[in-house]
Amino acid sequence: MTDINEEKFYVVAAKSELDATGQMHVDLNGEQILLCKDGDEYYAIAYMCSHEEFGLEGGTINNGCITCPYHGAEFRLKTGEVLAPPAYENIKTYSVRTDEDNISIGLAE
Ligand code: FES
Q1: Which of 1, 12, 59, 84 is spaced 20 to 30 Å from 100 by Cα?
Q2: Closest atom, ligand 1, to C-alpha of 73
């Protein structure tokens, strides 16, 4: 049986780094990721929107969702599920762990 938890976690940011904008672009081993804060929760999603090749950075975050700043597609931060057009494909999400000060993202080994 395969262990589905075979991920390695990398510290990518201090929590304080997201205080100003609630978002941060992370290049983790070549994966382009957008780290997001919504209330007290942290999420890591694909940096690129699935509609066109534009970044989701700067999108509005509200109620666990992000709205793309370009044409308004909406995605659920926790699952990457697409909720509103013009995007129709879900986006990738990553596991996130936090400790008192730092945020880590998990990548499959
Ligand atoms: S690039 Fe995101 S909705 Fe068009």
Answers
A1: 59
A2: 3
